[in-house]
Amino acid sequence: MYDEIIVGQGLTGLLTAIWSREEGKQVALVSTGLGKIFQSAGVLDILPGEDSRFADLMEKYKLNTCSRLTIYEAAKKYFQLTERIGYPYQGNIEAPITIITGSGNLKETAFYPDTIKPIPEQGHVVIVGFEEVVDFLPKYVKGNLQKSRPSLHVDTMTVSLGKGSSRTMSQLDAAHLLDQEKVCQHVLDQIKIKMAAKKIAKPELFIFPAALGFNKWRKVLEQATIQLQAAITEAPGMPPNATAIRLHDKLKKEAIKLGVRFYENTTIIGAKIEDNKVQAVITSANLEIKSESYIIAAGGMLGGGIEKTATGYKDKVLGLDLDHHGCYMSCPENVWLVGASNGMNVTQYGITGGVYSILSCYQTFTARKQHMKLGGLQHAKL
Amino acid sequence: MQNYNFLDRSFDACLKCHACTATCPVSNVSLEFGGPKHLGPELKRLTDNQQVIDDKRIELCTLCGNCDISCPENVHVSTLTAYAKAIHADIEGTKLRDHVLSNAELVGVAASAFAPITNAAMTMKPVRQVMQIVLGIPAERKFPQYRFNNFKRKYRKTTSETKRKVAYFVGCYATYNAPEVADSFVEVMKHNGIEVAVPKQKCCGVPMFANGKMEQGLKNAKYNIESLLEYTRQGYDIVLTCTSCTFAFKKEYINYLQSADAHELAKHVYDADEYLRMLKEAGEFNSNLAPMNDKAGYYAPCHMKGQGIGNPAMDILGLIPGYEIQDVAAGCCGQCGTFGFKEEKYEISMKIGKSMSEAIADADADYTVTECGMCRNQLEQLTTKNVKHPMQVLAQSYVKNLEESVHASPK
Ligand SMILES: Cc1cc2nc3c(=O)[nH]c(=O)nc-3n(C[C@H](O)[C@H](O)[C@H](O)COP(=O)(O)OP(=O)(O)OC[C@H]3O[C@@H](n4cnc5c(N)ncnc54)[C@H](O)[C@@H]3O)c2cc1C
Ligand code: SF4
Ligand code: SF4
Ligand code: SF4
Q1: Which of A15, A70, A97, B138 is the most interior residue, by most CB within 10 Å?
Q2: Per-residue DSSP letter, A214
Q3: What is the DSSP string of A351-370?
């Protein structure tokens, strides 16, 4: 009944769904919960957990030279999409920027939203925390920042959002509050008063937790930039980070509006396979869903698509045999793999970075287009 | 209350990832609420096989189930919050108003008996002011209408003689407030050659669970399971037009009761559009539908999303020639069954509803289509568009086609 069933609602699942739908395909997306973007910083790294260049990714993942060109096309397509849905990303794969995290440590990242700015080598920055958000402590952030940026002049301050809470307030809660004009102005006023009291004049950059508005992030960012007369950045830390949740929210809404059918709150527990082709997948709700092709965007080991057992790796989606790298021994001809579903070779500490997610989606997308043109003959596996 | 130490170990899998709280419609607009992560798995871990803890903040949970949809680890978050609600209601006691609201069925019987009076009274300012003072139901809140000629009064078939047999669980809303939905369903089934039987049934229990009246809700659940299993064991399929009732049959009965009977019944339960989609796949769907040049916005109820069935209403309505329908991609409506009728929750209900009404306005369709009667109430309060059930649209198209073919054929 569908042209395509996508398993997974992470970055790869949502991107694949949107891009396929734009090609006019009938698309269903099946998922148990939201993917890992939800826990991420909302910035897309090359190799997760370490500073790296695209050449490192190519070497580590044994990518061919075409990939270098492909990543530019992939990034362009991703930037266009994020622009259209009102949360634009930017960045250059050959020149990652150094950003600050919620703990004050620095990391390099390739693609980032408008609310993220690079950390300068020198000059003057102000770190602003919220009394109510205990995950982000300006003094602690400053301590770590100065270890890697000793020549940077750093001031800190803590202001109040002016709202009580019956639960530990997260960065996302703060973002929802800052969507309210009154709260936002109240925060900016306090900062100005504290700047005057501390005699802080003309800093280059203000650092906030990843909480600068949710739906109204653009307005919050604009107001802060104008009124504080400096660049503004978010420093993503403990989840939930507004940087990441905005991305998920907007991608998902776009997919729904485009008519992707979401089968949520359910898990694929097996498949009917005949003649080396998947005929249908079976969900935990006892539903059989049929499609021409199946795209596994189940996030590998961390996403829940692959499980490590005493005897090796186990495929939790289709129930097929995996080798000692977590790759399919023999992949049915109408199945395509994206992201960490490609096995352990493409993961680092169990995860893939956001850059690889985008590259992998795009490669599958173009390979499938090619495959259609060739009339369904052999398809190149990644 | 029966068993505080109900068996559900799903909390063990909780990663504390916050996905549930970050997508909880109530948490997103209110800091008064403890949130699903805290009041679900964390509270259960703290109290499992221990002294119970009554946390008043649980009152704000609507049992919409968005937490379950978001959880990557399959924690039964809303089952845990449902029990926390039951514990709270048991210890704190239930307000008169919540007794009234949770008894959708009793109210339905009484209100529809005096329907013209009830409806008139519900729009009268002094009556509503008294209701606010005595019952805590806000005066500005719209109420669904009650019908004297309710579905129960006029449809009395309890068996089906056709090849495919459908046993219809009508639900309170289509029985007392919107019999036109039930009529349309019967009509649609007729066009597909299926006679509809209506078995003995009680309210699905959703409003009871939502008000912490677990014991009473489970009593209804057991009654329905017993009554409907008699049908499924004779080859009937159970079909419903209310997505909250369907959700209860498919998920809540199983999670709360954990009985073999609940599991057996769930295998035969279908949402009406889902059933038609199944007929379509089996090649049995009547696609003699008259064209309709409408542009509709679809509003997906939370309890539809939670069933993991895709979007059957759009699949089916999309078969009508010329019919344009788009999911407006809105979140929870904020009515949440009985929740939005309560004075102290009214503000939260309106805040949640705001983004829904913006999505409806953005889509700018001719009217809105949704399955849930409670969502319809909120849609009617917060938007300017009319609201229809998918069965009403489909019945209209079938009837129109019939009329046109009668005209076309020579006498
Ligand atoms: C805590 C954390 C922080 C991170 N931070 C960053 C960061 O800042 N920058 C960065 O670049 N990367 C980060 N990553 C890496 C991140 O995992 C990837 O960038 C990317 O988001 C992975 O996306 P994915 O779509 O491949 O898989 P996932 O996001 O893992 O999605 C997998 C999906 O498949 C579903 N699924 C699995 N099995 C089944 C089944 N049987 N049936 C139905 N559904 C199923 C899951 O429910 C889920 O929806 C982080 C990862 C983690 C865990
Ligand atoms: S059921 Fe709904 S209101 Fe209750 S905790 Fe879950 S998401 Fe929140
Ligand atoms: S979404 Fe699931 S795993 Fe994450 S915090 Fe909530 S219950 Fe725990
Ligand atoms: S959920 Fe269904 S049975 Fe229950 S009150 Fe609503 S309409 Fe009635």
Answers
A1: A15
A2: S
A3: B--HHHHHHHHHHHHHHHHH
Q: Is B354 in a helix, a strand, or coil?
A: helix
Check if B336 has its Cβ closer than 6 Å to any atom of ligand 4: no
User: Could you report the per-residue pLDDT of B16-29, keeping only the tens digit for each?
Assistant: 999 999 999 999 99
Rounded Cα–Cα distance for residues B240 and B269 (Å): 8
Measured distance CA(A249)–CA(A215) in Å, rounded: 10
Instruction: State the average pLDDT over residues B395-401.
Output: 97
Determine the Cα–Cα distance for residues A159 and A194; give it in Å rounded to an integer. 9
Query: What's the first-to-final CA gap in chain B, in angstroms?
Result: 68
Q: End-to-end alpha-carbon separation of chain A, Å?
A: 27
Residue A382 predicted with pLDDT over 50: no
> What contacts B233, CB < 8 A, 6 or more positions away?
none
Question: What mean pLDDT, rounded, does chain B reach?
Answer: 89
- What is the average pLDDT score of chain A? 93
- Total residues belonging to chain B: 411
Nearest CA to ligand 2 atom 2: B64
Identify the CA nearest to A131 among candidates A105, A101, A156. A156
Predicted model pTM: 0.94
- Computed on alpha carbons and rounded to an integer, the radius of gyration of chain B in Å comes to 21
pLDDT digit string, tens, across residues B236-275:
999 999 999 999 999 999 999 999 999 999 999 999 999 9
Query: Residues A222, A185: contact at Cβ < 8 Å?
Result: no
- Taking the C-alpha atoms of residue A260 and residue B42, their distance in angstroms, rounded to an integer, is 34
Residues facing A130 on adjacent strands: A159
Question: The complex's ipTM?
Answer: 0.93
Q: What is the dihedral of CA B329, B330, B332, B334, to 10 degrees?
A: -160
- For Cα atoms A241, A242, A244, give the angle at the middle one, nearest 5 degrees: 70
Two tokens, residue A84: 């259209």
List pLDDT tens digits, range B299-342.
999 999 999 999 999 999 999 999 999 999 999 988 877 777 77
Instruction: Enumerate residues 6+ apart whose C-beta is below 8 A from B349.
Output: B334, B335, B336, B339, B340, B378
Q: How far does the centroid of ligand 4 lie from the alpha carbon of residue B152, in Å? A: 14
For residue A217, which amino acid is it?
W
Cα(B144)–Cα(A71) distance, integer angstroms: 55
Give the best residue of B309, B325, B326, B332 to mutate against chain A (max A CB count within 10 A).
B309
Cα(A291) to ligand 4 centroid in Å equals 34
Q: Supply the Cα-derived Rg of chain A in whole angstroms.
A: 22
Residue type for B394, please?
A: L
